[in-house]
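hey all, quick one before standup. I had two proteins in the batch that finished overnight and I want to keep them in one place so we stop losing track of which output belongs to which input. First protein below, input sequence then structure tokens straight from the run.
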Amino acid sequence: MFEKKGYIVVDKAAKSEDELFEIVTDAGAEDLRDDVENFEIITSPTDFDAVLDAVKKAGIEPQVAEVEMVPKEYKKLEGTEAKQMLKLMEALEDHDDVQKVSANFDISEADMASA
């Protein structure tokens, strides 16, 4: 359900999409995604350091830069299911022995606000 990928998030104001696409693909990135306020750069774990170096050399300071477990597909949750999942995620993240939680759910902004 998950695969290990490099994940880098940069602010859209840093560079235009075309400029950033050229920088990261030349360094070995697999994908560049537009996430409304940010760009998400996806890499293989082996190319992560090279892509991160290219981003920094271009004068861009990443908001997030890590190798993590990325879902292969997402599950849409609504209503009661969404509320239950948010409660579970909060409980897991608050637990002292839990360091990182990966999830593959997709919850609308309205459901997140009502939880």
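OK second protein, same deal, sequence then tokens:
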Amino acid sequence: MDELDRGGYRPAKFWAPAIVVTQLVASPMLALGLFTRLAACPIVIFLIVTNYERWRVGGFFGTK
């Protein structure tokens, strides 16, 4: 969880299970075509948050 805190994901105790559930449940459902809209929603939210936090904390492309 220290890696999540350094990456800007606070509180890490919330984001760690959210990431695990997204990757272990929603991703296979999306890949298999089961409930695709329902499975895509947490994945899209996760990707938006990830891009925002990466931009906010360290910038893109190692420019900072």
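Flagging for whoever picks this up: Helices lie at 2-6, 12-32, 36-57. The chain has one domain: 2-57.
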